[in-house]
Amino acid sequence: MRNLNTMLIMVLCVNLFALNAQHEISKSTYVLQNIESRDKESLDGLWQVIIDPLENGFYNLWLDPHKGKKAFFKNSKMKNKSDLIEYNFDTDYQLMVPGDWNTQMEKLYYYEGTIWYKKTFDFIEKFDEKSFLYFEAVNYEAKVYLNGELLGQHKGGYTPFQFNVSGKLKEKDNHLIVKVDNKRKREAIPTINTDWWNYGGITRSVHLINVPNNHIVDYGINFIKNKKNNIQGWVTLSNKNNNDVIIEIPELNKKFSIVASNGFASFEFRAKPELWSPKNPKLYKLNIKSSTDSISDDIGFRTIETSGYEILLNGKPIFLKGISIHEEAPFKTGRVTSEEECKVLLNWAKDLGCNYVRLAHYPHSETMVRLADKMGLLVWSEIPVYWTVLFENPDTYKSAETQLTEMVARDKNRASIILWGIANETPEGDSRLDFLSRLAKRVKLLDKTRLVTAASNTHNSGNKVKLIEDQLGNYVDVLGINSYCGWYGGSPESCSKWQWRNLYNKPIIISEVGGGALQGLHGDPGERWTEEYQNAVYVNNIEMMRNIDFLAGVSPWILMDFRSHRRHLRRIQKDFNRKGLISEKGLKKKAFFTLKEFYLSENNY
Ligand code: GCU
Questions:
Q1: How far is CA 13 from the centre of its chain?
Q2: What is the residue with the minimal CA distance to atom 7 of ligand 1?
């Protein structure tokens, strides 16, 4: 009997540890969970901007930061006609927020540097409320000033951040100024070399969020370590005094009260929800109410785990029929800025017969991930630890870990996400392995309920054998392999003859495979850049994949052509990576239908 009690106490402790770990982590991200459900004012629209390549608005000629009226964040105005003020937001250019600047203004197409943004707004203070300025994403570094005062800064182009502006807002003419700098830096995440366009700007929406003084900050809910029918969760409140919290899931006939102490409350209950899956993306309304605040969210319940070479969704093996996607807007190009554009991309993936998407190479918008929840698409979400980052640099690691924490904190309640990706094609070596193994441990601390992965390269060994032996395989749950047989080596026809050997008893996903074609260019399958050549790459790689018995999924590169500085061939690429199965104008290429046929022939999920 004593042993049983000991066991029960241990299980309880493990669960509480897991809950507290998540709770601790949520405190470190300082952003409100689920802004969709909050009372907010949009600050989107036209902002006044000043293009400032030499950062004159920040530094004087001795490169010291300005202190007085020359600093652009002071928004100085001439007091008399002899005043010398060499800037004026109100007579300068305008840019749309959200949006990258590169595709809004011809002169900014290649621009990498600082642009100052200014928005003026009025504010009506409400009794017993707090206000937060919430940025969904700014690429790459943001310094944020309100009425001339620095609120703070953020680095990382794809995750949200916020500032508490309670008591700092005036009734009239608040000026919010943001210094945005998208210069690539060797020590940053990503580093200076990427195969996607360095779109700069306030690339996602900005909100002024008003919440009750004592408000619900964050929460998490999921199955207890993949045990179906045992649901656990937690809620954090802004105020530490005790507070009754009501948890309700009407469709499960669940409604109960818990008591928060020191601003934290956890819960656990048994229920038999319909399991979320691509074929049945069932979402339940979750209502959380405290004495002063309430929030609702749409939650899917599912389990995800591995068993040998298999990925198990809700306890059953699933083959991930996927496609990789960059956050490139269909038709207009540039950064995706609307739910409509997200829908186009994910509907193309559904049309392709996908049950999974790799959202490369950085966290996409919350809108995109919430749509994947609704549409039933499993998601690989990743941080841009891409190629040759500075693995020895502690600041580089800190940036990667911060972006990882921000990604997990924002999306921890999204059923669609099953894989957290921590790296892509990073050159092997001791410092890289140390860097990535630390990230893998970190993400397990953040979230025990999902799988950790990374995309690496294969080693060609001997004649026609692809060896999967990257030591990173020891630290992830699923190993992604980028393999470009028929494009970056070998003829398309040679691919079907490749054998694969996996040194790990773990699932492998071919996280990238494919080749380029200019949509509408036709010729014989031996002619590079024709749709026929790209199609031959797919036909032969599909034949190769059919013979890999440990393969758990594939996300070919890539759904749609996307802009990249690395793609120069004028007549063919014109600054676009042409490996899309669809052109940026929305025109499908021959290989789209070949991959679709393969997916439709795969008789599962
Ligand atoms: C790499 C990389 C992608 C890149 C692709 C390509 O595998 O992961 O980001 O776009 O190859 O060369 O097209």
A1: 32
A2: 482
Q: What local confidence, expressed as pLDDT, does residue 18 receive?
A: 52
Low-confidence ranges of the chain (pLDDT < 50): 1, 11-14, 605
Domain boundaries, the chain: 37-211, 306-601
- Residue written as tokens 């956890």? 266
Count helices and strands in the chain by DSSP H and E runs: 8, 33
Question: pLDDT by residue (tens digit) across 311-344?
Answer: 999 999 999 999 999 999 999 999 999 999 999 9
What's the 195 CA to ligand 1 centre distance in angstroms? 6
Residue 195 DSSP symbol: S
Dist. CA 476 → ligand 1 center (Å) = 21
pLDDT of residue 45: 98
Question: Is 487 near ligand 1, meaning CB less than 6 Å away?
Answer: no
CATH code of domain 37-211: 2.60.120.260
- Rounded Cα gap, residues 458 and 153, in angstroms: 39
Q: How many Å apart are CA 77 and CA 90, to the nearest integer?
A: 10
Of 419, 314, 304, 417, nearest in space to 370 by CA = 417
Closest ligand 1 atom to Cα of 425: 8
pLDDT of residue 458: 78
Query: Structure tokens of 555?
Result: 């996300």
pTM of the model: 0.95
* Residue burial 86-124, b: 16+ Cβ < 10 Å; e: rest: ebebeeebbbebbbbbbbbeeebeebeebbbbbbbeebe
Which ligand 1 atom is nearest residue 424's CA? 8
Q: How far apart are CA 132 and CA 165, in angstroms?
A: 5
Residue 14, pLDDT score: 46
> Which pLDDT does position 605 carry in this prediction?
46
pLDDT digits (tens, 9 = 90+) for 394-452: 999 999 999 999 999 999 999 999 999 999 999 999 999 999 999 999 999 999 999 99
Taking alpha carbons only, the member of 135, 111, 133, 120 closest to residue 203 is: 135
Topology given in CATH for the domain delimited by 306-601? TIM Barrel (3.20.20)
